[in-house]
């Protein structure tokens, strides 16, 4: 503001911070106490607001949604049906409903709302069952996998560029590097790494259901199949560590 005043600029154009609504599905999820094999903790509800803030967005408190088409359709309508202009959302994220299992109802809910399906699955591991659609009013909806690390991978590769465009920025540049580690034959592989001496070092097993590795990482390594020229995406500072 001081620089603008010193330059004599009395009026400037600004963009509001993108607002994101987060819908978390999964009747099996619990919100407190220790998880069990059949009742995992909801990790994405607590993780996504901070991750999205690090990407320049303002995320409201996540809304839990039951595993039915009716509840998900109603939640999508409510996320968009706001009366105050300052409460309008620019993007809706839905976790855990974009695959093709018996409790995954995002495809049907979007069809009922007349949405246009733009991306339906990506050839990457983890994070394959990610989805992008556009509602009739133009608002994008991103479906994220239910497994926490897979969801973070989808946020970094699908959601982050959308937020950059909404905010009037170019997507963050990628860093190219050498990688002598494993790669998949057909799918892009996403690996949490720390950059040590200019070289990416894996930080641990990157199981799609675990946030341990990504919490210790500084970058997400994007390894195309058969490529010796992978790229690194910088994770938002202070994601967890």
TrEMBL record:
This is Molybdopterin molybdenumtransferase. It comes from the Bacteria. Catalyzes the insertion of molybdate into adenylated molybdopterin with the concomitant release of AMP. GO terms for cellular component: cytosol. It is an enzyme of class 2 (transferase). Its cofactor is Mg(2+). It holds the Pfam family MoCF_biosynth. The keyword Metal-binding applies. GO terms for molecular function: metal ion binding; molybdopterin molybdotransferase activity. Belongs to the MoeA family. Pathway: Cofactor biosynthesis; molybdopterin biosynthesis. It catalyses: adenylyl-molybdopterin + molybdate = Mo-molybdopterin + AMP + H(+). The keyword Metal-binding applies. Residues 21-165 form the MoaB/Mog domain. One of its GO terms (biological process) is Mo-molybdopterin cofactor biosynthetic process. Its EC number is 2.10.1.1. Keywords: Magnesium, Metal-binding, Molybdenum, Molybdenum cofactor biosynthesis, Transferase.
